[in-house]
Design a protein that fits this description.
ULK4 kinase; ULK4; mainly alpha; Leucine-rich Repeat Variant; kinase activity; ARM-type_fold; 66% helix
């Protein structure tokens, strides 16, 4: 059963970066874009364990969800240092709320990315999502958060392979990903 996601709202007052619109982000010069990305990555990488820090990180992820639905921004974010940072957060975050939001950002980026460089660690994200689903297979709430991101990444890989611009080895999909996906479809 796939549940429709509720609209995402972020609080610009508590966001520790300027809440630029997607239009503003797409018109940024490279220097400003890189500074923006550095600030986003440093906020995501913060290891502070307080409730306020977790709320701040969730708010940032909500903001990323709102800008990730724009094709140009999604492509730029996917090819930036943000994507490996999201994978790291998915692996290391203590809170499942944060992991769920990170998975949503990854899924939105995969859905809206129009071009993908071969250096983007898509395989690493697929492997990690597969492991997390397998480890938490009995937890249907977690599966509902993680499966859409895995599906979007697999679809993105298939779209890129159809274009034929990159060799198949760039984004190797482990057979375990298909096994987990089929098991989820079979067992619900």
């Amino acid at each position: 059963q796939i549940i429709k996601q509720v609209p995402v709202r972020f609080d610009p007052k508590t966001l520790h970066i300027p809440a630029h619109s997607a239009e503003k982000l797409s018109s940024m010069k490279d220097v400003d874009w890189n500074n923006f990305l550095k600030r986003v990555c440093s906020l995501l990488d913060s290891t502070e364990k307080s409730t306020g820090a977790a709320r701040s990180k969730l708010n940032l992820l909500y903001y990323l969800c709102t800008v990730a639905v724009h094709k140009e921004i999604a492509s730029r974010l996917m090819s930036s240092q943000l994507f490996p940072m999201l994978i790291q957060q998915l692996r290391a975050a203590a809170s499942w709320d944060i992991r769920a939001r990170v998975a949503r950002v990854i899924g939105l980026l995969a859905l809206h990315t129009s071009e993908l460089g071969e250096n983007v660690p898509i395989s690493e994200a697929v492997i990690l999502l597969t492991e997390l689903i397998r480890e938490n297979f009995r937890n249907s709430k977690l599966k509902e958060c993680l499966l859409p991101a895995l599906g979007e990444l697999l679809y993105l890989i298939s779209r890129e392979e159809e274009k034929g611009e990159h060799p198949r080895e760039c984004w190797a999909v482990p057979s375990a990903a298909y096994t987990v996906l089929m098991r989820c479809l079979r067992e619900g």
